[in-house]
Design a protein that fits this description.
By secondary structure, the chain is an alpha+beta fold. It contains four helices and four strands. The strands form two sheets. A two-stranded antiparallel sheet has the order 1-4. It has a two-stranded parallel sheet with strand order 2-3.
Length: 114
């Protein structure tokens, strides 16, 4: 099922919600600063997508997005060895190879004077 939202009020509500399901918000913007500020002005940060013909711009924007995974010119391309996890209210820590070891391990330091 695909969802399309066309009114500004629906779009604003949706961009601050945490919808489950494939939903895309397409919002016009004037410059990079504006779109980065809007994208980061939510309490969630699991994943984001950047679509651009300009790879330098894509790298610059992706670096500044507060999301655990940023796909560039693609979506859901993932190797299970890559770290996966969110920022902000979308989770703490990372899963996937080394991230899983750290996340699921309780580290302890024991000091003994002999």
């Amino acid at each position: 099922m695909r969802s399309f939202y066309f009114s500004l009020s629906q779009l604003l509500i949706l961009t601050f919600a945490f919808p489950l399901g494939p939903v895309v918000c397409v919002v016009p913007f004037s410059n990079e600063e504006e779109v980065i500020e809007r994208a980061n002005n939510v309490k969630y940060g699991l994943a984001a997508c950047v679509w651009s013909e300009n790879i330098s711009r894509a790298h610059r924007v992706a670096q500044r997005l507060q999301a655990g995974t940023v796909w560039t010119n693609c979506w859901m391309v993932r190797d299970l060895n890559m770290p996966f996890g969110g920022m902000k209210a979308s989770g703490i820590g990372r899963e996937g190879i080394e991230g899983s070891i750290d996340f699921f391990t309780e580290k302890k330091t024991i000091c003994i004077k002999l």
